[in-house]
Amino acid sequence: MKALINEAKQYIQRDIQSKNDVFIKLCSLNLLNATIKDKEYKIELSYGYIKPCVSRLVNFLVSHFDDGYADELYYDAQGQCIYIRCYGIQFSFHNIIVTKDISAFANSELNNPVKWDGIRLLPISKDLFLLAKDIFLRNVEVNQINEAFKLIMEDK
Q1: 33-65, pLDDT tens digit by residue?
Q2: d(CA 141, CA 138)
Q3: Residue 27 near residue 121, CB atoms below 8 Å
Q4: From the centroid of its chain, how far is CA 84?
């Protein structure tokens, strides 16, 4: 698992040039968010590392809103939660650092409310990360991503 954590940290630091880059960052952050809950890895990870990384990604997404890097983006100020849909998969992160850009987005007409899908991604974080790596390295088609996600969900 340590090797996956280190890989995830590397993917998080990469510049975004495509939707695949966003997807692997989301899956990397999801993996770290799941792993930090395990006592064995708390030493290697901290929310002080993860939350600012999520905020940087959200800042990028709100400043490139029209470029199609995310299918859906919604910040729920009351619930202090950001919802990001990429390739049909909805990610959510609580208690992120709200920057000036995120706040401006949250108060704009672009911030359209969405409901949580009810799919918990933390238990499948490793599978999602491996899927994202495969997509990143092979440029997989969207319909293949959706099929792979369904298979992951069926296995859990």
Answers
A1: 999 988 888 777 989 999 999 999 999 999 999
A2: 9
A3: no
A4: 7
Q: Confidence band (pLDDT; 50, 70, 90) for 13?
A: very high
Is 112's pLDDT higher than 90?
yes
User: What is the full DSSP assignment across 55-99?
Assistant: HHHHHHHHHTGGGTS-SEEEEETTTTEEEEEETTEEEEEES----
Cα dihedral 123, 126, 129, 135 sign: negative
**CA torsion through residues 44, 81, 147, 66, sign:** negative
Contact criterion met (CB below 8 Å) for 62 and 54:
no
- H/E stretch holding 14: none
Strands (E), the chain: 72-76, 81-86, 89-94
